[in-house]
Amino acid sequence: MSIAEPMSPAPSSAPALSPFTRMLRIFSRPSEAWVGLSERGQWWFPLLIMIVLEVALSATTFRRVLLPDMFEKWEQQVANGQMQASQLDSMQAFFTDSPAALAWILGSIVIVIPLFMLLQALVLWFGAGFVLGARFRFSQGLTVVSWASLVNLPASFIRYGYGWARESFEGLHLGLGVLVPEPETHTKLYTGLTVFLDAISPFAAWYLAVLVLGTAALAGAPRRSVAWVLVTLYLAFVAFSAAVAAFTSSGM
Asked: What DSSP character marks residue 41?
């Protein structure tokens, strides 16, 4: 008769992090913020925080900052012959007097933020899953993007704070775009160049660093390889965005 060997106890898994604890770790110890996210992404929590704060900040600065900026651009279009004066009057009346205007602006934020995160998750999934060949699902890409996006909140507070103080968002550069002298008349080259350089900033570097840590943790890939792929894809995406901005701008 054989005596069965006693079973060794299973290794204890790391304790699950609460959403608030994970959020704090994203800022303080981002390399340790991804425990348990492979099984349960909780991507809705940071997404909800981003939407609520962006909606609140936009609503606060709507009449003080956003409307004056919009009206100024429309008046410039009238002066350039790109818009009829009667059209400007009707648009100003709608955005000034109708509550639907504020609802339309805030509603667009609720739609655009999730769509933008889905697009970034798709790029992340392509980089880790196809370029690196790691076992990395699209849902994991959405998880990493959602949680890493929390580090963009300081930039949002700076942007809205600047707009509130100056009563305009114009002239704010959080990246290298501040080094480009502003011409009297904006050109397509100036628009494209500032869009590209503004995307190279300390906040962008912070966001990319957290993306690299999260992707490497969930994909099981070397951080160095993940960093090369994500930085390359980011610069390619920024270059494309700058080209589109330059092409669609009203400058010469």
From this structure: -
Mean residue pLDDT of the chain comes to 89
The answer to whether 118 and 126 are in contact (CB under 8 A) is no
At 151, which amino acid appears?
V
**Could you say which DSSP state residue 249 is in?**
S
What is the rounded distance in angstroms from the CA atom of residue 176 to the CA atom of residue 208? 16
Q: What is the pLDDT of residue 15?
A: 64
Residues 163-175 pLDDT 10s: 999 999 988 889 9
- Residues contacting residue 26 through CB under 8 Å, at least 6 positions apart: 33, 147, 148, 150, 151, 210
The answer to whether 200 and 193 are in contact (CB under 8 A) is no
Q: Which residues contact 95 (CB under 8 A, 6 or more apart)?
A: 67, 70, 101
pLDDT of residue 2: 40
Contact 206, 140 (CB under 8 A): no
Count the alpha carbons within 13 Å of 84 in the hemisphere toward its beta carbon. 3
**124 burial level (CB within 10 Å; 0-12, 13-18, 19+):** buried
pLDDT band for position 4 (cuts 50, 70, 90) = very low
Single out the residue of 14, 50, 47, 10 nearest to residue 217, CA to CA.
14
* Residue 80 to residue 83: CA distance in whole angstroms: 8
